[in-house]
Structure formats: C-alpha cells, structure tokens
Amino acid sequence: MQLRAIVVVFAFVFALDAGCKRAPPKEELASNERRPLPVPAPDGLLAELVIPHPDRTWEMVRPSVGGSPLVPSSPAVFLVDVLGLPVSAIEQLDLVVPVVGAVVVLHDQVATVAGIHLKDGLRFIELVTSPSGKFTKGETRDGVTLLGPSAAKGDPGKSPAGEGALAYAVSGNYLVVAQSAESVQTFAPYVSRSLPARPPPPEDVVASAGHAALAGPVIERLKKFWDSWKQDREAEDLAMRTKHGGSAPDFGDPAQALADIDAKAAKFFAILGDLDEARLAVTVEPKGPDRGMSLRALVTMKPVSEAGPAGQEIATMPVAGAEPLLSLPASVAVALLIRDTAELRDQSSLAQVEAISKVLGGRLESEDKTKIESAFHSWSKGRGDWLTAGPVWAGPTRAAILRGAVADPAELGRGTTAMLKLLSVKAIAEPLSNWVGDMKLSGIGAASSAADGVVQTVHVVRRPPKVQLRRERDKPAQNDAFDIVWSIGKEVFSGAAGLDAKGAYASLQRDASKTLAQDPFVTRTVERLGPNISFALMIDTARLAETGRTEPDGSALLVTYGKDRRNQAWFEIDVPSGVITNYASLFGVGR
Q1: Domain enclosing residue 147, as ranges
Q2: pLDDT score, position 462
Q3: Residue 393's closest CA among 476, 315, 310, 334?
C-alpha cells in the first residue's frame, strides 16, 4: 500500500498534462469566487506538498529519462492507468493549477492525500459515474463527495484501479486521492481549501513540515523505529553470548556500542524536535548554452531559537568554501570534505576515546587507554580545519587518499605515528585478527621524523582473519600486502594507503592539471554554494560503475551540508541530467 502511494505521488509530480495551458472559463472564475474558507490544520498532519507548475515540470523532466514509450508524451494517458479514470474524464484535470497534498498519520498509519484541480468538479462527477465511468457516487459530507469503484464486468467487487486501489473524492473543484475513504473524508477539506489559498513557491516540488509535526508525530515514529531496531540488536547480542556460553564477544561489546549510538540518537531527536520548520524543495534547472539540465534537492532546517539544541548546533557549525575538494585528483571515484574547528576536534577526540574504551570494555589496560588518548589528542591537535579523502579509481590503481590542513606539524607527526602503533595494542589487535586479520607493520620511524616534510612509508602485511565468512571458506587463504605513504608539510599533509599507495600519493603531489576542478558540474555547484559548506561528498557514478561514459556535465553528483546567513542549516543534492538518464536506463526507461 505504501509503495503504491509513493508511485501515485510521483505520478502527480512528473505526469501532468503539458497541453492544458489556457485561461480559466468564466464559470470557473465564478466558482473560485465562491470557494469555501480555509480550515485549520487537522490532527495527524506530518507534511504539506505542493507542485506549483506541474506542466512545466513535466516538460523539463521528461527528456532526462530518454523520452521512451515507457514515459508517455501525454501524461494524461499515464494518469488513466495509475488512477483508473475513464478517458473521458481526463480533460477535466486542470493541470495548469498547482497540485497540492499532505502526508498524514491516521490510526498509526502514514498516508498521502493528494489533490488535483478540476475544471468543473460537478462535471467530473457526472463523467466518472456515468454507465462507462467506472465509479459510483457516494455520500457527500462537509462538501466532500466520495467516489466508490463500480464492479468490474465479470469480476464483481473488483476496483477499476486494480488490487490495492486508492480512495477518491471530489471536494469543490479538486479530485482528492488517498489510501482510504477515511483519509479522504478527514483531510480533503484541508487539502482542497487551505493549501490552494497559499501563494505558490518558486521551486518545482516542495514538501514542508512545521514544528508541531516535527516535535510530535515525526519524532514519535522515528523513536519507535529506533527502539525496535535497538531491541533486535540487543536480542542478537544476547543470543550470541548464550550460544558461546556467555563469553565476551570477539570484537568489542555490542551493548556498549549500542549505548553510544543511543546517546547520539537522543541528541538527534532533541535537535529535530527543536526545529521550527524543515522544508524540502526540488528544482529542475533547465538546460543552458553552457550547461545541461540538472536536478537540485534542497532541505532547509530553521531552528526555533538560537538558544535551543538545534540553534546551538547550527551556530557552532564551521563553514567555508569547498575548494579543497576540487583540488583532489580527477581519478577519485568518491571525494569527501569535512570542516571543523579546534574546539570541535577536541570534543570529537574525547568522545571517540570514550566510545572505544566502552566498546573494548575489560580488554583495555590502563596503559593502553593512555596510548589511545595520546594518539587521538595529538592527531586532533595537529590537524587543521579541513580534511579531504577518497578512493582513487583509475584502471588497476586502487588506493585510498587523504589530504588535510595542518595546525601543528610536530603534533600531527606524533599523532600519525601513534595511530599506526595502536594496531599493536593487544586490546585492539586481538579483535582485529578475528575479523580483519593480523596486521604486521614494518618501517615505522620515530615520531620526530614524521613531521619534517619527508615522505614516510610503512609496509603492512595482513594475514587472513580467524573468522571466515561462509562465502570465503572455499577460497584459498591469501596474505595481503599494501603500503601506507604520507608526508606532513607546514600547511598541508597528504597520504595514501593501498596496493598502489605510492602511485596514488604521487597523484596528490602533481600539478593541478587533472583535478576535480575540471569537472564543470561539480565546479559550478561549488562556486554557486560559496563559503557556506561544512560537508561535501562527490560521487562519480560512471567511474564507480567503470562504464567509461562521458557526459557533457560529467557523471558526478554532489551532496553538501552547511548553513546560511540566517543561521538555517541546509542539506543539498545536485545531480546532472546525464546521471538521471543513466539510472533511468537501469530500469528500462529511455532505451
């Protein structure tokens, strides 16, 4: 039922008739003048939906999925199949007017209620309830007329829309569709009378949730989901301990790990409940003379006040430009950028040490805990305010790279060496040998020599883990060997790890002739976002899939997170049309 609801909502978004551009007749204007007054938001409202320009959105989106027969040139044909409407009634869909809707919760079930404007509600009822109309007219209450399915010929009781059919009603000049007659009857007045009275937003698709919904039913459902997941993991841990006679787990303590995650979840719920509004806006950027079409999904989060959990979290978020991401080699398949401050690094370091200490439990000696504290302290103190990372994915080269700002070269040198030496700590080495394998490092120099800008190389030999996955038991055990290469300068440090670590490290030192800055879509997006980015993630879909495809705007999508000048947090996904087309082809669309 939920899947069908999602399909219908997206059908409303992308399958609206582009040929209905006409001035409203006088009869409709008179009807609008007599439009009933808006009603208050009903209980159970989670989010509101609006598609301001459905016809324009369809015209721009359809070419990005190839324009195949599976994506009809006339969206009305698609709606006939999805909604089970008679063909004669399609002309009544007034697709120039915004499509509106709401996500609601009724009897602990989430439902979607959507409203499509009609040229004439009464005429629509006549058409769909005619002998060939597939529907029968039900009761009318509070201006909402329910429409019931007529029995299909040869199969009494079958809905015209098939199994799992939706419920329909006409409220004023709106066709309202939901997952049950009760949902339609309860929420149709709000969808058809209140939502249309608001000015349409400038974007192509908008969904928004207010404080009452975020702090109430949204958090309530998320907490139920989290509690259920946590209980399942705790039951699994208890079953494993019982199976092995109550012995400690092979790798850390899952109960302590869950407790740490639970604390983070509680913080997330506190921030979510302190938001005044969360808003998702999808914008289709049309094709230009120097760029292709693209899709932008932007989530903005406005705190109730600067003093609350959300306001404080956003206020302490460091932001700047994403230029360090653009300086990574063009051969990376995934690129990550994070920004922080000295204070945030100190807090994170303490939290990580505490979490590791709890997870390792009784395995950790006091001396070893001191080593972990020292390593994390030096690493966080030596690092600067930005860090980039990603896997190099070019031909046979497979390696992970790391580059970041330096605050204290000597401290970072000590931290890097100390981090590598943690692999020999018994409390860490034993669990790793069970699941990852024994790690034998050679070539670790003195910490004092690791911060003078000289290239450092450590050779690592990994023996097969003691615990073999079922699918790996039939394969002959093999030892893996790889290198870790790095250098620390006064302002920037660089490193790589993998079978071809030296080649990947070299790609970080070369002239900026082949970097992500040469990707037009990524560069254009970074420049548009400006100095407001705290986190960025680039994913090159073609390089990951090893398709070798070249698109005018590249094959990389960008995920970013930051804040604006009004202290609103935002989360954005930017996708070029080429990526959309490629993914559509995976489902047989556009071929």
Answers
A1: 2-200
A2: 81
A3: 334
Tell me the pLDDT tens digit for each residue of 42-54.
Answer: 899 999 999 999 8
Closest by CA to 425, choosing from 387, 369, 465, is 369
Q: Are residues 383 and 518 in the same domain?
A: yes
Using the structure block, give the residue that is written with the tokens 């670790």: 444
- The token duo for 257 is 């790990």
SS3 546: coil
d(CA 277, CA 568): 10
Tell me which of 152, 173, 200 is where a domain ends.
Answer: 200
Joined tokens for residue 152: 């299909």
pLDDT score for 360:
80
pLDDT one-digit tens code per residue, 140-192:
998 999 998 876 443 433 444 444 578 999 999 999 999 999 999 999 999 99
DSSP string, 435-488: HT--EEEE----GGGTTSS--EEEEEEEPPPSS--GGGTTSPP--EEEEEEEEE
User: Which comes out higher in pLDDT, residue 587 or 447?
Assistant: 447
Average pLDDT (401-421) is 94
CB atoms within 10 A of CB 192: 30
Q: What backbone torsions phi and psi does residue 576 show, to the nearest 5 degrees?
A: -75, 155
Last residue within a domain, chosen from 200, 230, 264: 200
Q: Considering its fold, how many domains does the chain have in total?
A: 2
Query: Considering the domain boundaries, does residue 231 fall inside one?
Result: no
